[in-house]
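Hi everyone,

Forwarding the result from last night's run.
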Amino acid sequence: MAYRESFYRFLMTQRNPGSADDIAQFANNAQHDSSFPKQEEDYEKLSDYLPSMSVFDKAYQLYLDNMN
C-alpha cells in the first residue's frame, strides 16, 4: 500500500496568510485549531469533525488529486 500523507499535512501546504483564497483561509484557520484531526485521511471522519463546508469538499478533492 502506498504512503499517503494526512489531509491536515497536505492542507498546511496550502496556507497563505495574505491570500483571500478560500482554501488558503481554511488552511490558515485549521493551523490554529488544536483539536483538528491531524492524522486523518478519511473524508467521512473529517466531515464528521467539520461543519458542512463547501471549501472542505474543494480542499479534499485537491488533496485526492495531489495524492494520485
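DSSP finds four helices and no strands in the chain.

Cheers,
N.
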